[in-house]
Amino acid sequence: MSSYLKTKIIEKIRFGILSPDEIRKLSSARIITADTYDEDGLPIPSGLMDQRLGTIEPGQRCQTCGNLVSQCMGHFGHIEMARPIIHCGYAKKVLKILRSICPECSMLMLTEDEKVKYTKEQEKHREMYFESDEELTKLIFKTARKAKKCPYCGARKKKIVIEKPTTFYEEEEGKGSRRLTPMDIRERLIRISDNDLRIMGISPASARPEWTVLEVLPIPPVCVRPSITLDSGIRSEDDLTHKLVDVIRINQRLRENLDAGAPHLIVEDLWELLQYHITTYFDNEVSGIPPARHRSGRALRTITQRLKGKEGRFRSNLSGKRVDFSARSVISPNPHISINDVGVPTSIAKILTIPSNVNPWNIGEMKRLVINGPFTHPGANYIIRTDNRRIDLRYVKNRDVIAETLVPGYIVERHLNNKDLVLFNRQPSLHRMSIMAHEVKIMDGRTFRLNLTICPPYNADFDGDEMNLHVPQSEEARTEAELLLKVQEHMLSPRFGGPIIGGIQDFISTVYQFTSKDSVYNIKDTLKLLYLGKIFDTNPDFSIIDLTPITTDPEPKYSGKLIFSALFPQDLNLRQRSKFCKRCDVCKEDDCEYDAYVHIENGKLLTGTIDEATFGAMKPNSILQRIIKDHGNERGRIFLDNSIQMLLHVIRMNGITIGLDEVFVKDDAMEEIINTIDKANVECEELIKAYYNKDEKILSRAPGRTLKETLELRIRGILNDARKTAETIASIDIGDQAHSVIMTKSGARGNPLNLGQMAAIVGQQAIRGERIHRGYIKRTLPHYKINDLSPKARGFVSSSYRKGLNPEEFFFHSMGGREGLVDTAVRTSQSGYMQRRLVNALQDVIVENDNTVRDANKSIVQFQFGDDGIDPSKSDHGLAINLDILLLKAKSLKAIKKTPTTKTSEKNAPVKKVPIEKTEKKILKKPTKKDKKILDEDSLIQEFEKETGKKAIWRGKQTKQYYNWKNEKYGVKK
Amino acid sequence: MAKKKLDVLRHNLVPKHIILTKEQTKDLLNKYKIRVVDLPRILNSDPAIFSIGAKEGDIVKILRKSHTTLDEIEYYRYVTKEKTS
């Protein structure tokens, strides 16, 4: 298609000011009457709706160009002004010029020598940059303004002041000030020589300064200001038309008064009024004058308002447009589809189409689609014949007949179907991963479905988020999307070269449970998990025989670590510390007692529990990153897809949930917590007392602070420590098998503080980093005495979320909570504007083929991108190479080479069995021991839970079932 | 201009500044296919530029140490005059 188009290159664009002559030449009608339509609804000739200004009525021919509405683009008219008027947009420039020219002879007030020098410099600059030197121009205006006397005619310079927006006064010392009429100004501007203008950086050919004083006003064509006919038949005119009516009316009145020789005062008044109307016609938001208003009191939307700002022509209609072939809907999760996929509802797929060329190979398929028609899903909406005629299949009576007419060369606009590529986007589009290409999966329902792991790049969640979908229409666009935009091409962030997608939330807590030491699976579960992880597809040689079971007595059992390892490529090598690593002084590495040292050698997870640090999104040196770096995006995607499927099954087997009993603290521990808080309260009390007594022995002033600030500091410190202690007590009591703890430990969600707030104590509420001091005079709430500085009177919440807050505490908590909300609201708007400014400044900066970074003028910005030429998206967290990883790889290669004949399984066997057998003993022996003895309560509870799968303790009390079970098995102990 | 008190070039944080000869200038402009005005600019009032005595219109090569590569990185700057009256 494009090859038939004529292409031309724009060499240059010149902006200038229209001269009166040009306006008259452009004009197709001189407008005299201020009226628009007569009683019959016909446009009045020489009125604002004159038919020569272009037609807007369908079926009518334009009186100027003879075209119909669709062809006629409208024609300008003009008004002859009775008196010249200053254009408000140029007032500032006019002032600058007036101040630097002689009031008598209009010469630029520079000496001959200066003129010669500046002319030369301007010429030089123009030659190089095709425009005048702005800085030099500024300097010239500054020097010319300083002159006291005209160097040519000797006239004294007078001070010129401006009264915003368009009134000029000339002040002479001792003589008072005189108003400069636009006519006076025009006279002065006309006299300026072309050469002087060039020195001032003005091109006399395209922008003579006197043209900024309007003698003739162009009238925009009717289609620029169309009138609206309401249902009731009442015509409503556009804002611009309203304003033009005012302009013409006053202009006519001024002319009549002038012709009649009216008194000077009246003429002056009318002139000023005309100036006001014209100023507001151009810009209704100029400072210094009240905006022109509609009868209803609404400010008029005149020319400047139409163009300016976010809703203006440029940003709203030219830079951004509404598009076809797009859809928008609510999103919802579907963990069973690939990260490359997007679920599209059938109802949307039936509206979005893709033009397919009919050829001998697909003609059968195309016929089927045409027969299906626009209302059944894999169908088609339109056929475009070779003569470019479009057939709408909605109105075709017999689609079978039409289908038979299909021949190669026709284009069928078929419905969106599985495997089609579409672009998917969520606003705000802050980075390039906000728009990615997905493969369509047609689904029931009304929402777009997406895989959970791609939430981070879009920053999406499912609390009602909506997303947009666009269908590329050309083969080129689809190819580009396939190669550059697919989700799998965006797994590594261009920001730092690490993965921005990865396991989130439940996948993290599950992978933690799955790969921890005590997770074992029998052969049935193992096979199911391996199958779900598509191990047998990715690795055809794989066999379960190669896996070394952790135990064979009574049946073979496999560890979660082993099963998860099957997902890795066989040359994966990684050493990484887990999120819950205790940061010991000397790392014991493989022998870590917390199992926090992840060691993967040749695709086998030897030690360590996988958690957020190795499996999460945006984590440096994660498993996913290593796979992508070594094996490419495709393999990385397969790993992620498969591990998600495997883990999904594990989630269902384990079941992760939290309830109130997870944050329950037993009585003795609770007492301890209360004691801690009481102790802190007493400590604070002492400090407060010391503060009032000015006892600097107890409350010694901190350097650079007042006594009061010191007190606050100390109290905050004490309370914070108390909260931390309470948190620790609670966490010890809850233990580390609770699901809430698993979540925080693995990094899936939450942190110990959240748990402490739920179980033990909420803690100090703060506003701007200080305790709460707002409210009444010297107290926060009327519940407290004046000057009460005690913790509870200043927003210390000593309840836990589980226990519930009392009214005062709740109020303080809301105060603290509101600050957070306000902060986020302010931050988003600020960063949004910052982003906009950055994007505007950097949008044309590009890396050229010679590796230089250049701007829109092809001027050099950097000689090498980033001064070292490293592409951050291909780097390893900003570094060109990661030596640690390279070394690790080399070492494991050596290990393979040393024992070339032995099989990998044999080689791994001795290494593996030693640590594994230990765990096996632990697991197997525990229950056997317990059977024989009557044990303490704790082990009984464990036994009960194992046997029945029910909780023995609910909300801190033993359940009835447990009690009965205990009685039955071990007899009553009353 | 005040009397030169300190030789900035001797400071360890000031990189090497070298004025290009006419031939080198020509080569540079040919290499990138640019005009002098397409180069990044540096003011002639810059202490280092002042110290090496570069004049307006000269092109200066600056050699900086890099922490990502072993070689020194070359920068080129076009010396311009500050506009003051």
Please give a structural write-up.
The complex is a heterodimer of chains A (974) and B (85). By secondary structure, chain A is of the alpha+beta class. Among the domains of chain A are: 86-213, no CATH class; 326-490, Barwin-like endoglucanases (Beta Barrel); 660-822, RNA polymerase Rpb1 funnel domain (Topoisomerase I, Chain A, domain 4, Orthogonal Bundle), CATH 1.10.132; 909-970, no CATH class. In chain A, 40% of the residues lie in helices and 13% in strands. Chain A is built from 30 helices and 31 strands. In chain A, a hairpin with a 3-residue loop joins strand 3 (167-172) and strand 4 (176-180). The N and C termini of chain A lie far apart (94 Å). Mean pLDDT of chain A is 85; it is low at 899-934. With 85 residues, chain B is an alpha+beta fold. In chain B, strand 3 (59-64) and strand 4 (73-80) form a beta hairpin. Chain B has one domain: Alpha-Beta Complex (Eukaryotic RPB6 RNA polymerase subunit), CATH 3.90.940. The longest helix of chain B is centred in the N-terminal third of the chain and has 11 residues, at 22-32. A four-stranded mixed beta sheet of chain B has the order 1-3-4-2. Helix content of chain B is 20%, strand content 25%. Chain B is globular. Chain A binds chain B through residues 128-129, 133, 135-136, 138-139, 142-143, 850, 852, 854, 857-861, 863-864, 867-868, 870, 879-880, and chain B through 31-32, 34-35, 37-40, 66, 68-69, 73-76, 83-85.
Describe, in short, the structure shown.
The complex is a heterodimer of chains A (974) and B (85). With 974 residues, chain A is of the alpha+beta class.
Number of helical elements of chain A: 30
The strands making up the biggest β-sheet of chain B line up spatially as 1-3-4-2
Q: What is the second-level CATH architecture of the domain at 326-490 in chain A?
A: Beta Barrel
Largest sheet of chain B: 4 strands, mixed
* Structure summary, number of beta strands of chain B: 4
Count of beta strands of chain A: 31
* Structural class estimated from helices and strands of chain B: alpha+beta
Strand content of chain B: 15-25%
Identify the CATH class of the domain at 326-490 in chain A.
Answer: Mainly Beta
CATH topology of the domain at 326-490 in chain A: Barwin-like endoglucanases
- State the name of the first-level CATH class of chain B: Alpha Beta
The neighbouring-strand order within the major sheet of chain A is 9-15-14-17-8-16
Beta-strand percentage range of chain A? 5-15%
